[in-house]
Amino acid sequence: MHPTPEHAAPEDAEARRDIVPVICYPTDALPAPDLSAYRAAREGWEKIADLRVPPREALAFDVPAGHFFRIASVEGPQVGDLNLFSADLSERFYSGKTRALHGTHLSRGDRMWSGFPTMRPLATITEDTLDWYGIDAFGGAVHDVIGTRCDPYTHCLLSDGGQYHYCCHSNLTRALAEARDLPLREAETLVHDVLNVFMCTGFTRDTGQYFMKASPVRPGDYLEFFAELDLLGVLSACPGGDCSSEHSSDTAACYPLGVEIYRPKSAPEGWAPPAPNAYDRSHGL
Ligand SMILES: [Zn+2]
User: φ, ψ for residue 117 (rounded to 5)?
Assistant: First the structure.
């Protein structure tokens, strides 16, 4: 937020503002995924799981390395909050660095990176049926890594102590605890910022605030991933539904989400699971 200034602008204020920005992390040097090899590997694949995430609940699902999974709209417009872990939970999706590398919203060819010190791709996006949407006149786009996940703590602060138990944070916590037989409070510390699948979001230009609008997703749409490592995915069908009005309540119309897992006949040509990041971790000592 930008308060009314209390300090006079310097004489060269406009000149300073007119400086052309540079991209923080040019990605030309990032090893690019061989998307054509990934997509060729879908030929003759076998669907081995077809799951449903109930509205206002989350579901955990294992995906072996070298398999594909899809998150699908099945009955009505619905957004999903996705957490990704290595199967042993030692690595987690790093939303902030993924955003720094690929931008505010992800699509085909982008990767979901793990945190430090491994910092390697957990998954690669291989298909996005909403890629036609682009960036709308409000600056909105789909599949963001700028939001966090709706949670009961923020809701409590903003609603004078309100207690709501089906925010994505709580849904992810319950599903992770059940999937890996963890105490609820231990599972909660592993839940992390999400990929907001199908959610349409941006920042207002006048105040810089995070906004959402009705998702353009419709039944039949999907986002498809290739698992670079053995993964545990946890997906919450957000209580915000299509996120056209509000979340953190039972008010919005909500629908299930589909999760489909596919086993290819053989691994993509030339693919190998990514090695952990090659930084030597000496940190100057
Ligand atoms: Zn949510």
Answer: -95, 0
